[in-house]
Design a protein that fits this description.
With 129 residues, the chain is mainly β. The protein has a single domain, classed as Cyclophilin (Beta Barrel). It has an eight-stranded antiparallel β-barrel. The protein is globular and about 35 Å long. The relative contact order is 0.30.
């Protein structure tokens, strides 16, 4: 079954890990319209990612309330956790103790994050022109 979306419903983004590689993801506006727009406006984001407990955490300097809170997400999801002020890429299915916003997913090269053993620089850029 084909997946149709209107223009502007998905923000295509790229995660660049210097000397390691790149992965592509998408922020899905319907999952959190204000949060995804805020994040898209903040791009590019330069931070230091940390791999911990099958999560890749990227601290960010914006705070936003969750529009459609959940406590579960699956491998490859991009979520925002206000408690830690971080964008998180899940490397396994997971249930969180606190509310999160599942705002997108990795669509290309998720395996790059599996290979990480420690923290690394990360840059998040927009692929939309």
């Amino acid at each position: 079954m084909a997946h149709y979306v209107m223009i502007g419903d998905i923000y295509n983004i790229k995660f660049i890990l210097p000397n390691i590689g790149e992965a592509e993801g998408e922020l899905i506006r319907i999952r959190g319209p204000h949060l995804t727009e805020l994040m898209n406006r903040e791009l590019p984001i330069n931070s230091r990612g940390l791999k911990r407990e099958n999560l890749f955490l990227i601290p960010v300097n914006f705070i936003y309330a969750i529009e459609k809170p959940t406590t579960t997400a699956k491998r490859g999801d991009i979520v925002f956790e206000p408690k830690s002020k971080a964008i998180i890429i899940l490397l396994e299915d997971r249930k969180f103790d606190s509310k999160i916003a599942a705002i997108g997913s990795i669509v290309k090269n998720l395996k790059m994050f599996d290979k990480l053993s420690q923290s690394t620089g990360v840059r998040i850029e927009s692929l939309n022109e």
